[in-house]
Amino acid sequence: MQQYKSKQAQVNIGLVGHVDHGKTTITYALTGKWTDTHSEELKRGITIKLGYADAEIRQCKNCKRYTTQETCPYCGGETEFKRKIAIVDAPGHETLVTVMLSGAALMDGAILVIAANEPVPQPQTYEHLMALNILGIKNIIIVQNKIDLVSKEQALENYKQIKEFVKGTVAENAPIIPMAANHKVNLDKLIEAIEKYIPTPERDLSKDPLMYVVRSFDVNKPGTPIAKLVGGVIGGSIIQGKLEVGQEIELRPGYYDGSKWVPVTTEIRGLSSGSEKLQEALPGGLIAIATDLDPALTKDDQMVGNVVGLKGGEMPPILTEVKLDAKTLERVVGATKIEPIKLGEPIILTVGTAVTIGQVTKVKPLTVALKKPVCAYPGWIAAISRKVGNRWRLVGYGTIL
User: Fold this and answer.
1) What is the rounded distance in angstroms from the CA atom of residue 205 to the CA atom of residue 218?
2) Which CATH number fits domain 210-310: 2.40.30.10, 1.20.1300.10, 3.30.210.10, 3.40.50.300?
3) Which terminus in the chain has less CB density within 10 A, N or C?
4) pLDDT tens sequence across 122-138
5) What pLDDT is attached to residue 327?
């Protein structure tokens, strides 16, 4: 078993489900952090970007209940540190399913949030469970939230609807935790379930490192003198291997120079997880890499979707065309029947954290010419979204050939 020398998050746990079912409130209950910090998110009251927050799982030495606090909130006893987890709060809004899919690529397990005061399933509840099914995320906990808003009879009827909804899916045997997240009711039971049902995966640290980029920043304040400017920062999750300060890394597919896509190389100037500085970073959690890249390349999330690896190391190829062994869902939100994908049709592919639009050039095998290339190995999964009415909907998936 790999050793986490620091208290870096060891496992990424996604919070998914329909908009307004309480995902961000559960994140706050677990971590003490509101992940809706983008100005547009605050204004609209929904998650737009992926939100990250870390939490320490601790167990009271006295009453044995689980918490995220150093002092037990139930008996006042001292708590013992178990591990650190990273919560990935994914958007639930129907127009942001591709962002949710890019977050799902990082998840080692998931918490599917379903409100007790609405019929099951709501549209994005269905879409998000299908995404977990497609990506093979099997460590799942279901939170039946907002039980404080319904009667006992209504809660039991909602529970039956949930059980029927998940039958035949990866979540069929998932535990269901009733909660009132606003009041932290049963928060200890949720944390206990996380510890029991979402273990830290075995990581192969001997492999060449690979990291998905989910954020990129220019951290320089306006007006900073040239002599004091620092390089751009990229943030993401390592999916294999480890990264160390001083290593030379490559980002693929890189940036568009006006005529072609150009991979970029840089040196790791610093690593951090939250507020903790690291000398080496392992899989799990959101890792920030300080680089010597021109901050104009990294500002405004321009490097999102790139894959990071060692310069000269083994990395996935850059693909401008993707061939897929594709499968479509039986049904899709907002439509009674999924029509076959057509030649010349525009579709969106989500591969890792890369979201790209392309045009179908062949139906069998499904072949897509990409507007923006992706970096991917054969065998990786691509989620397929297409226009249904006037919205992009998740309609299937494909294995890259």
Assistant:
1) 30
2) 2.40.30.10
3) N
4) 877 888 888 888 878 89
5) 87
